[in-house]
Amino acid sequence: MDFGTAHGQDVAEQAGVYKTLLESTRAIPWKIDWATMRFAYIGPQIGELLGWEPGSWRTVDDWVARMHPDDRDYVVNFCVSQSKAGVDHEADYRALTQAGGYVWIRDVVHVVRNADGEVDSLIGFMFDISERKRAEEEVLRLHKRLEMLSLTDGLTGIANRRMFDQRFQAEWNDARRSRKPLSLVALDIDYFKQFNDGYGHVKGDECLQRIAHALKEIARRPRDLAARFGGEEFILLLPDTSPDAARAIAESCVQAIAGLRIPHAGSEAGDAVTASLGVGTVVVAAESQPVDFLEAVDRALYAAKAGGRNRIETVPGTPAP
User: Fold this and answer.
1) How many independent structural domains does the chain possess?
2) Nearest Cα to 232, choosing from 265, 191, 268?
3) 3-class state of residue 158 by DSSP
4) Coil vs helix vs strand at 42
5) Residue 271 is part of which domain span?
6) 174 and 246 fall within a common domain
7) Are residues 179 and 309 both part of a single domain?
8) pLDDT grade, residue 136 (50/70/90)?
9) In 151-270, where does DSSP find H-type helix?
10) Is residue 23 domain-shared with residue 55, that is, in the same domain?
11) Separation of alpha carbons 92 and 103, rounded Å
């Protein structure tokens, strides 16, 4: 037997074995010639996954065209820059199927250099990571849902104290920068203990829910926030709101609660449920603290309660810029 012929047969057999192994995996092997940017090879599995036959993958333009438009610029720029630098890399993107859908792909790329150290070709594998992406998206959705639940009052469905605290601090910082007024309206339902004693806690919960809904309808601007502050107390966070506008919103709260006509035989402020309100507006100075402003509005609220309830009291004055 001629040794050269035998050796050539062994090499061919080995190449055939490697090809069989590559084409029997779920990963899709491919190779691109760097000089021509043409596909030298792509595994037949691509047809099963995306519907495009291997022969339709001629150049990198086919790869780019079959990528989701939202992923295209970043992925292409990233892969080109890494390849030019000779750095192995990987990228996730959505690949277009022949049927018009998309499949999440992870491309793992190895940069092959020639004897002169220049980029000769790119070889890699495409992996279908759709299930993994769906699982990640579900985890993210659940995380966002849990985060929202942690910021929502379970009874009334509006923001809770934690969410108010976060937003109040953020709006305080913004007001300090913008020098625009920031207002609060704090509200406490009058004689709510007597309401619960007379009508029961189920009716008490229903009362809180109806009032919370009414307040949410009033705080309708994108940055406004209606929150349950605790127990029967609510608070409205009103960015970029002048003293007159804040007072008008407080009066709207009084009217909205009166409009609910929730009977309250145990109240000394009337025959229906009412509330006492404290209103304040601040132009945030560099040295001022949000807790001081919140306490000032709270004192105005308790002044309204001490003054006979079913009334509005305003924090006197507005700090100078």
Assistant:
1) 2
2) 191
3) coil
4) strand
5) 151-314
6) yes
7) yes
8) confident
9) 161-178, 192-199, 201-218, 243-260
10) yes
11) 10
Q: Per-residue confidence at 20, pLDDT binned at 50, 70, 90?
A: low
Q: Is residue 144 part of a domain?
A: no
Handedness of CA 15, 17, 22, 23 (dihedral sign): positive
> CA-CA distance, 176 to 282, in Å (whole number)?
10
CA distance 4 to 8: 6
pLDDT band at 18 (very low <50, low <70, confident <90, very high): very low
Residue 115 lies in a domain: yes
Same domain, 300 and 160: yes
Integer angstrom CA distances of residue 170 from 33, 176, 182, 262: 53, 10, 11, 35
Structural domain ending residue among the three candidates 77, 99, 134: 134
Please list the active-site residues: 232
- Residue that the structure tokens 């630098």 belong to: 85
Which distant-in-sequence residues (6+ apart) come within 8 Å of 36 by Cβ?
A: 59
Q: Which of 253, 259, 228 is nearest to 304 (CA)?
A: 253
